[in-house]
Amino acid sequence: MLASFRRVLTPTAVVQLLVGWLGFVALTIVQPVIQGSLTTPLLFGLLAAIVAVIILCAFGVVTQAERLAHRLGDPYGTLVLTLSIVIIEVILISAVMLGPGDHQTIARDSVMAVAMIIMNLVVGIALLVAGLRQASLRVNPSGASAYIAILSLLLIVAFALPQAVGVDGTYSPVQALVVLTLTILLYAFFLYHQMGAQREHFQEVGDSSAGPTSSSSGQLGVMQVLREHRAEVFARAAVLVLTVIPIVLLSHDMAALLDQGLERLGAPVALSGLLIAAIVFLPETITAIRAAYQGEIQRVSNLSHGALVSTVGLTIPVVLLIGLLTGQRVVLAASPAELMLLAVTMVITMASFLGKRATALHGAVHVMMFGMYLLVVFA
User: Fold this and answer.
1) Which letter does DSSP use for residue 207 in this model?
2) pTM above 0.85, yes or no
3) 8 A C-beta contact, residue 75 and residue 300
């Protein structure tokens, strides 16, 4: 185990870990100063420093995620990165809800921003990158269909149904209990489906193996890979999580700075949640775009759509449970404009991933759709 950690903890990985955690410690120490009034140059200089630290850590996360994916194969490798980011994001949202202040819409705003970033901006750029390098891209139709089906249901339950059956965009206690129970069961079954006998639905087209591949051991089952490379897998997963945590913590702590900066620029406050969501999912975004560059379009779907399924499937039940236990009001219903954009996004997603080929044109449509979302945010 120690030998594996020494191999994984390269000088670059050590620097990324140190910079990330020292950046978080430094930000914690200067919290009293940040809470005061900062000059505009100092404010934006501090924001730039935080973003630089986050980007450095993001590349470290991407490196470990790609090594794990290469060792374990899909969908296991990408699932490690997805769950590590999403679970920490859920914990942060929960911490905000349990903290002081009124945060009735924190889950809705965060998940909506993540949905638009992932399904339009990340997917759009990835399809553009992959489509411009290759004439057409083949997506595994079974995996794409599974993602679209579960996302269609989860997004409706999260953002549309509360307005239709709830009161002022909020589920009643009985409705919340039913929704969180069924959502957890569906998400658990999805994970079982993705990692079980149907895992080939989430592998690249043309990969006929029944299990993941390994660069050094040929085609192996995931249990055999874990038996032979347990120490390496554990070490890389641990380093990945330890590098992800500062990213999310720094993103959370800089929310107040972003609010101040956007207020001075006259930008809408809702843009703060959008920027934080984009930064939190930066490692996943970089990994998806690099996978697209290599022509691994199914891995792009696993990273993007899989991340969104995990985000909605974990966040909504957790915030509803917190609301039930604490008596807080949890507003989930989205605005008519946001619901319209979600509906059109799902139609575009079906056209992109359920057709015979995905192209750069599909990517351009997704990117434009994200531009329409920004119009709604600034409106």
Assistant:
1) -
2) no
3) no
Token digits for 163? 């307005």
Contacts of 368-373 with CB under 8 Å at 24 or more apart are 368/124, 369/120, 369/124, 369/341, 369/344, 369/345, 370/116, 370/117, 370/120, 370/121, 370/124, 372/341, 373/116, 373/120, 373/341
| pLDDT (tens digit per residue) in 101-125 | 667 888 888 899 999 999 999 999 9
For residue 164, the 8-state DSSP code is: H
**Residue 173, domain extent:** 2-378
Read off the tokens for 100. 């002081």
Q: Where are the beta strands (DSSP E) in the chain?
A: 213-214, 218-219
Q: What is the CATH number of the domain that holds 89?
A: 1.20.1420.30
Give the DSSP H/E element, type plus range, for residue 355. none
Cα 181 to chain centroid distance, Å, stands at 22
- Phi, psi of 30, deg, nearest 5: -90, 10
Rg (alpha carbons) of the chain, rounded to whole number: 21
Q: Which residues contact 307 (CB under 8 A, 6 or more apart)?
A: 82, 85, 86, 114, 118, 281, 284
Sign of torsion, CA 287 288 292 298?
positive
Number of structural domains the chain divides into: 1
Indicate the SS3 state at residue 211: coil
**HEC sequence for 272-339:** HHHHHHHHHCHHHHHHHHHHHHCCCHHHHHHHHHHHHHHHHHHHHHHHHHHHHHHCCCCCCCCCHHHH
Over the stretch 301-347, which tens digit does the pLDDT of each residue have? 988 999 899 999 999 999 999 999 988 899 999 999 999 999 999 99
